[in-house]
Amino acid sequence: MPGHKLTSRRLSFAVSLAALAVSACNQPASSNQQNSAGSGQPVSAPPIAALPLATAAPVAAQPAPPASALPLPARALNFTGGARENRYRYTERAYAMSSAFGDTPPDYTVDYQGTRPWIWRSNNGGYRVVERIPDGQRDYYYQPGDTQPFYVSDPDAGYAYDRGQLVGVYGADGIPVNDVYAAQRADAAARYLYRAQELYRAAQYEQRQAAYAADWQARRDAVIAQRRSWEAARARDADWQAWHDAHAADERNTWNDEQNRRMAYAAAIGVSVGAAAVALTRHHDGRPPDGGGPAYNRVPNMAEPPRFENGSSFGHPANNQQLNRASAYSNQSPQPHSVPPTQAIARREPVAPVHPVTDVANVQYRHDRDVQFQARRAHQQQIAAAQSAAENGVRTQQAANAQRQAQAARQRQQIIRERAAATARAASTQAMAAQASRRKANAEQQQQMQQQQASRRAEQNAQQQLQAARQRQQIIGERAAAAAPVTSTQAMAAQASLRKVNAERQQQSQRQQASLLAEQKAQQRAQAARQRQQVIGERAAAAARVASTQAMAAQALLRKANAERQQQMQQQQVSRMAEQDAKRARQRTEVERTAARTQIALAHQQQAAAHAQLAVVHQQQQAAHAAAAHHSAPAPREQISPRPHPKHAAN
Questions:
Q1: Crossing angle for the helix pair 89-101 and 213-236, nearest 10 degrees?
Q2: What sign for the dihedral angle of Cα 504, 506, 507, 508?
């Protein structure tokens, strides 16, 4: 029936809608992409946007290693636990992100250590990475702007992270486990955290490639099954359901735009597939594309319908290779038609001669139809140019933001360098002060040793003098005993000598006591000096430790500054690539505008030529009618002007 026929206008609208839906992926296409998509091989692109699925046979890639085979990071990870009221926050957030991505295929993949992880990137900068492992898959979820994940799941468990700390461990269904089991899983959580950081770096800087359509078809249900498992577990857990009811609005506001964008993309893909299926049915049924519709769609003597640039006509779809090329081609701005309008009209001339009026009407109709077709293409070019201008504006803004961030990073780096230099100067000053204190302590220690040596020499001299006095006293006593029978005068002299000896002995004893006191004082001074030296040494050691710590901190600041400098250089490279892409896009837009203006001018010229041809045919018809009327008249009684044909008069 006419109502079920697929007209050329409807099919062209469906195909145009599908092309716009595919171009909504924000993927800039290059010549390499077109050639690769036409051959069914995966395409590559700079790290800017998503890529279409590759239709070639998948290349075998090895699965990611299990947790036990992953490298263990240098820093151990302990289970710290989190607030009990927030234990469902991380699983619910991962569920919201997964729901936002919906059933859309991965945006791209990268070659990471022989594996091909799938990567989804949201418009706000969030990431989901899925990699295949021997017994299933492992999922990583990243908040916008974070290089570390907030949730990682494998077929056995889930792990929640907050600022690099393990705050929660869950079962495969998202239900929290007890703390004893959570502490036992800290080793696997640490390995996952380290690999997640490396995967994020690969997703940012490695060359992006298209995922294989066959792989996505085989593993699509496994990706969706995790979200369904969480939904079922949440329905069984009253606490989780209460958390979901209380916080669903916040998560919905965060991911609403992304979810709408993904749903529109999935719907557009479904529309394009449906249009191709209907066209294929019309082709196999043997029915013409326009069928028995209105008279506008049943103009006689049409040699062939207009064709798309991929080789398929209205109602006659292209083969798979042509459809793949058309899919890749729709990601760039439309190009001018490969066949000039004049040749297209000549190619569709009727085979058998017909009435001149019908011929002119057919020519006029085909010309009007071509003009409408060119107008639609010009409108599509304007839409593509507007989209390209919007993308250029976004890229320009991104480049400006990157420049501002680079300038701020350079300022921070300069401040860090100045602080590091000041810290180094302070450490050097403290080291010099510690050395001066050490030299002073050594000098005091040497002085104490000299004083002790002098005290010991004085004590030795006093002992020698005492011994000599005893010897003299003994000699005097012996002499006194020998001279006992002598006179009293001699006895008195002997007593005087004895008193003198006793006095000398007392003096020696006093000198000895003074020497002992001096030695004790010297020992006390030496002990005080040793204590001062010990305090000075401890202070010097503490100053040295502080100086070493400050030097290590300065080295860490320098390493951080170097890392920021490398990141700035990478950002500058990304900015330069974005500027180059914007420049190429502007050049393509200018070429397309020039081609559109040329096509419109050609269309006007063709329309004028058709009108002129129609006027000539009209004059010829008037002359023929006049000649026929002249020959059929019986007698030339009077001059009668020929009456024009009603259809010509209407013209």
A1: 140
A2: positive
333 pLDDT more than 80 = no
At a CB cut-off of 8 Å and minimum separation 6, what does 358 contact? Answer: 300, 301
Per-residue burial over 128-162, b = 16 or more CB atoms within 10 Å of its CB, e = otherwise: bbbbbbeebbbbbbbbeeeebbbbbbbeebbbbbe
Give the C-alpha separation, 479 to 476, whole Å.
5
Q: Which residue has the higher pLDDT, 120 or 406?
A: 120
Q: Are 150 and 131 in contact (CB under 8 A)?
A: no
Alpha-carbon span 186 to 168, nearest angstrom: 10
The set of long-range contacts for 56-59, using a CB threshold of 8 Å and a minimum separation of 24, is 56/212, 57/214, 58/212, 58/214, 58/215, 59/212
Tokens in use for 293?
A: 């519709």
Short-list 569, 41, 559, CA closest to 324: 41
Spell 339-349 as b/e; 16+ CB within 10 A means b.
Answer: eebeebbeebe
Residue 10 burial (CB < 10 Å; 0-12/13-18/19+)?
middle
Q: Kind and range of the H or E element at 367?
A: helix 356-482
Q: Are 271 and 18 in contact (CB under 8 A)?
A: yes
Which of 282-289's residues contact partners 24+ apart within 8 Å by CB, and which partners? 282/5, 282/6, 282/315, 283/315, 283/316, 283/317, 287/5, 288/315, 289/5, 289/6, 289/7, 289/8, 289/11, 289/313, 289/314, 289/315, 289/316
Answer whether 521's CB lies under 8 Å from 451's CB: no
What does residue 632 show for φ and ψ, rounded to 5 degrees? -85, -10
What share of the chain has pLDDT > 90, as a percent? 27
Residues 6+ apart with CB under 8 A from 486: none
Distance CA 143, CA 149 (A): 7
The two structure tokens encoding residue 210:
């298209």
| H-run or E-run covering 132 | strand 127-133
Distance, in Å, from the CA atom of 290 to the CA atom of 2, rounded to the nearest integer, reads: 9
pLDDT per position as a tens digit, 33-85 = 444 444 454 444 333 457 889 999 998 899 999 999 999 888 888 898 877 77
Q: What are phi and psi of 121, to 5 degrees?
A: -125, 125
Tell me the residue type at 127: Y
CA-to-CA distance for 51 and 209, rounded, in angstroms? 7
- At 435, give phi and psi (nearest 5°): -65, -40
Do 322 and 312 meet the contact criterion of CB atoms below 8 Å apart?
yes
The pTM assigned to this predicted structure is: 0.40
